[in-house]
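#struct-help
A.M.: can someone run this one for me? Single chain, 65 residues.
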Amino acid sequence: MKVEVDVPKCVAAGQCVLLAPDVFDQRDADGMVVLLDDTPAPELHDSVREAALVCPAAAIRLAES
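D.P.: on it. Structure tokens below:
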């Protein structure tokens, strides 16, 4: 799995951080998404998929390998 985020689309809701904190974080200044790991381990894939699904701005894109 390859993860990409479109930071300008982010609305700083933080759902991705709650669901996959090993993969996503938020900037302190404005709450925008920070991608910590663009190729997460297989055991994190389900939580990353869920984070992408619930992102209110659809700012997370996944490429399954």
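A.M.: thanks! The helical segments are 15-19, 45-54.
D.P.: also worth noting: The mean pLDDT is 97.
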